[in-house]
Design goal:
heterodimer; A: alpha/beta; five-stranded mixed β-sheet; 7 strands; B: mainly alpha
């Protein structure tokens, strides 16, 4: 084993230990209660199918308890198209390990989510190791994949989008392996992970489709024969559909005659209004620049600059390749000239098509850009692509390589410093484009992470009260935040919604579904004084008000 | 075949982007305006504002200046006499 590999093993052990020591610091994400319910929904279906009566009874008991505890959760019967890959195993672990304390089972979910992201970071390392040869570039790629603040924070509590990013990354690893060697093992492994990605988010369907287009391009370039072309296409379609069908119950509802209706649920919109650039927009008709703006303000600027440069360079190369294609078969007269170029082209086309989709086709988005967190993979890949070109330029010109390393080390330390500053709210990270003067133009605590911390503070402040009445001046489901508290503390809290007259304390994270200019339902009454305001880099995250006696 | 395929893809994507940047952009702007205005919410806001203003005015000792009061009185009497004449 060479020193390089040993260093990386230590690097990943170190990263895992960091995650292991901090996973308890994070609050509960806004969708976690629903996802837990979703897990039990599927678990009882599976136990019924296999006639495991005792386990089915336990799962049913848990499911009913969740429904009784919080009837406001969305109905799983309607939203039953996601969650089989993460929520069901998480519910199974909770059931088998008899985790009955809410704090414990949410923390276990957080650890599990982090674990999946950790595994995906190893696969990302393997992807860039096969693509870029220089160690320093591989180091930087692995570090950037991990330390992008929003992704780092969400890797502990976002069981949907970051889980999808993780599976997406693993799928692309096997897709690239398939590019390298077209054998059955790589096809099956790719189809397995692509199917899991698809059952986690419908966007995963994109992976086999683009792979088939690449195989078709290979056929057009006469790199594969017609017989082999059909063989590969058939195998991919068969394994992908088979694995998807076996593990994804929503597929069982697929009726070919109602194909469009089957897809409609994935584009269901809650019809909410979203704060963006200071105005409230319907989430179905967001401005074209919604996604690019969110990515630009929540990703470290260094990564953004490298991404833009890299994307333009990739675009130039693709353009040159297209222009130089001639009808006659000649070496290099193709869209790519090497395996590495083929991988780069895959990344370029993927990012471009998702950007076109997000910008022009009105997908319903909320909570910033979390539905598109899987783009993080492409963003970091292109960032590393740019760094690699700069590195090669330095080498060619015989510049000092330590200068290159030092500059990048500086930016890595700068981003890690941001992780410390925002901890445990890295999911609410904004880069320096957002400051005290303009942060209120965007929603901040969209994952509702601050709820538990706020309730802990209220409990401590009101420790002399037998019951503490808490009101909520925001759209956040505050009552669910109590699940990271001890049972005795939970009993003390009484949630009174927007009935401020009854409240001892009011919590707000300034996250509204209505425009507060016109709707006064979240206005804090005069008899309440602000006793706590939590800000990170002058960005106010949440406040607590107390009734004056 | 190969060149035809690539050209076809590029033209389709190009036309789509062109459409979105011209006609699509205009349609989206209209949709945004239509769906982002919450008429109920805004009318409630205006009603509340009116109520608030009336309450503030009622707190004052005098709403009108002496000149305005004379003017409105004359105007009111004039209107009243014209209405009576109709009968």
């Amino acid at each position: 084993m060479n020193i390089f590999r040993i260093n990386f093993i230590f690097f990943f052990i170190f990263y895992f230990l960091i995650g292991f020591f901090i996973y308890k610091d994070y609050g509960i994400g806004i969708e976690e209660h629903f996802q837990r319910q979703n897990g039990y929904y599927w678990l009882k279906k599976i136990f019924t199918f296999f006639r495991l009566d005792h386990l089915n009874f336990l799962a049913l008991e848990k499911y009913n308890a969740i429904r009784t505890y919080d009837p406001s959760l969305p109905d799983t019967e309607f939203f039953n198209f996601y969650g089989i890959a993460f929520d069901t195993p998480a519910a199974f672990i909770e059931l088998i390990l008899k985790l009955n304390e809410s704090k414990l089972y949410f923390e276990v979910r957080h650890l599990l989510n982090f674990f999946f992201f950790f595994i995906s970071s190893i696969f990302f390392y393997l992807i860039i190791k096969r693509r870029f040869k220089d160690r320093i570039i591989i180091y930087l790629g692995s570090i950037f994949y991990i330390i992008n603040p929003r992704i780092f924070g969400d890797s502990f509590h976002n069981n949907k989008d970051v889980f999808f990013l993780s599976i997406f990354t693993i799928s692309i690893f096997f897709l690239f392996k398939y590019f390298e060697k077209q054998n059955l093992k790589n096809i099956i492994l790719f189809c397995f992970f692509a199917a899991i990605a698809t059952s986690s988010r419908i966007m995963g369907l994109y992976l086999p489709i683009l792979l088939l287009i690449f195989i078709f391009a290979d056929f057009l370039s006469k790199k594969i024969l017609l017989k082999n072309f059909f063989k590969q296409i058939s195998l991919i379609l068969f394994f992908f559909i088979f694995i998807l069908y076996v593990h994804y119950p929503y597929m069982w509802k697929l009726n070919i005659l109602e194909f469009i209706n089957w897809f409609k649920v994935f584009f269901y919109s809650m019809g909410l209004r979203i704060l963006f650039l200071g105005d409230y927009f319907s989430m179905d008709y967001l401005p074209h620049l919604y996604l690019p703006t969110w990515i630009s303000i929540t990703t470290p600027l260094y990564i953004i600059v490298l991404l833009v440069i890299g994307y333009l360079l990739m675009f130039r190369r693709v353009f040159q390749r297209i222009v130089n294609i001639i009808p006659q078969e000649q070496p290099y007269s193709d869209l790519w000239r090497s395996l590495d170029e083929k991988k780069d082209l895959f990344i370029f086309i993927s990012l471009t098509s998702f950007a076109i989709f997000a910008v022009f086709l009105n997908p319903a988005m909320l909570s910033g850009w979390r539905h598109f967190y899987f783009l993080h993979f492409f963003i970091i890949y292109i960032t590393i692509y740019t760094l690699n070109l700069i590195f090669l330029y330095f080498k060619r010109k015989k510049f000092n390589i330590p200068i290159f390393s030092f500059v990048n080390l500086f930016f890595v330390i700068f981003i890690i410093r941001e992780l410390f500053i925002f901890h445990p709210y890295q999911s609410l990270y904004f880069n320096s484009l957002i400051n005290q003067k303009n942060y209120f133009n965007f929603p901040i605590d969209t994952p509702s992470l601050t709820r538990s911390d706020a309730l802990k503070f209220i409990l401590n402040d009101g420790k002399n009260l037998t019951k503490i009445y808490v009101s909520n001046a925001s759209w956040t489901p505050l009552h669910n935040g109590k699940d990271l508290l001890n049972d005795s503390d939970k009993m003390k809290l009484v949630f009174v919604g927007q009935d401020y007259n009854k409240a001892d304390y009011i919590y707000t994270n300034y996250n509204y579904e209505v425009d507060p200019k016109f709707n006064k339902k979240y206005n804090i009454p005069n008899q309440f004084n602000e006793i706590k305001r939590v800000s990170v880099r002058d960005i106010t995250i949440y406040s607590i008000y107390k009734k004056s006696r | 075949m190969r060149i035809f395929f690539y050209k076809f893809i590029i033209i389709i994507v190009g036309l789509f982007i062109l459409y979105q940047l011209t006609i699509g952009y205009t349609i989206k702007k209209i949709q945004q305006k239509l769906y982002s205005i919450n008429i109920k919410e805004q009318s409630e806001f205006i009603k509340d504002k009116l109520r608030e203003e009336i309450k503030n005015v009622l707190k004052k000792d005098a709403i009108l200046t002496k000149e305005d009061a004379i003017l409105i009185k004359k105007f009111y009497l004039k209107i009243l006499s014209e209405i009576n004449r109709v009968d």
